[in-house]
Amino acid sequence: MLKNLCQKMFGRSLWVYHANSGGCNGCDIEVLNVLTPYYDVERFGIKLVGSPRHADVMLCQGPAMRSTARALRAAYDAMPAPKLVFAIGGCACGGGIWHDTYAVLGPVEKVVPVNYYIPGCPPRPEAIIYGVAVAVGLVDKKVAPVEFKQMKLPFPSYHPEDLRGHGEMVVYEKAEKI
Amino acid sequence: MSMVSKWKEALVGLRAGRVTLDYPAQPRPTPEGFRGRPIFDAQKCIGCAGCANNCPAREILVFDVCQEVRILQYLGRRCTYCGRCADVCPEKAITMSRDFETATDKIGDLEQKLELFMSTCQRCGRCFKEGSPLDQLKLKGYRFDDLANERWIFRSRAYLESEPVVDDIKIELD
User: Fold this and answer.
1) Complex ipTM
2) Confidence (pTM)
3) Pick from A39, A95, A142: CB nearest B101
């Protein structure tokens, strides 16, 4: 439903606002790299604007910090109604390396609702374009949660109660695999 | 005069060609030595939790359900792809893939969860488990991270406080 809404609402162009709430500027440089002629995102109609009041999408970089959480929330509230938030980078997605220090509150989803996550430290420009393309509906997402269970022990297990002396040799009984 | 210079500029622009990559339509190869998302191989993993102890972002959680079953959970959210887990893995069960297209709309898509079968000691058959939870925490092998809240728990605080200490968000936003 969100995808259909995206295609309907943002079919023509996304105007993005670039909010750094305390990151290291790595992701900012990658976002600006996306706007260069090599990764020209203006072919998708994406344009960088300077005010959240003009924007459809907020690109969040950096964790939600104690000093900037309120400003980030105010910038989110200033955006007009159909709005998306992209969390770009490991800090915005999960709080970053210093997620447990006193100045960092955690990921930006603690302060503003996040619609799309682009992890990486920093993500490649291609990864950012891929995230935007997932949001617009050009490509499908590739990741899925993986769960693996080792049901069997890969080698036989022995127990000392099953150990019997046989001549000079030691014989294990019940040496089957679990 | 200015017209001529404009035409010259246009000619230069035509000669320069086009540099824009047709990225989402065409795949883009990664450079040599690029580190992307780590992939955990559960067949090779012996559950030593060296990756969890060395992760700078505390992204790998370990929870010992019982003597035989250990859960190792990788949440890919704040991973910086530094590759230290792959370096310390004695069995080379973690490979840094070249997968960078990990954008998603649900953060839970990034996680990998291994339910590992740990064996008992072949010599004595008894477990290494200590009697009380506090004694278990002193043992180096045992980890009881908070899987529900997805938090890495320091050794001395497990079982003592499972709730977050201060609810910072409510203080800051009100």
Assistant:
1) 0.72
2) 0.76
3) A142
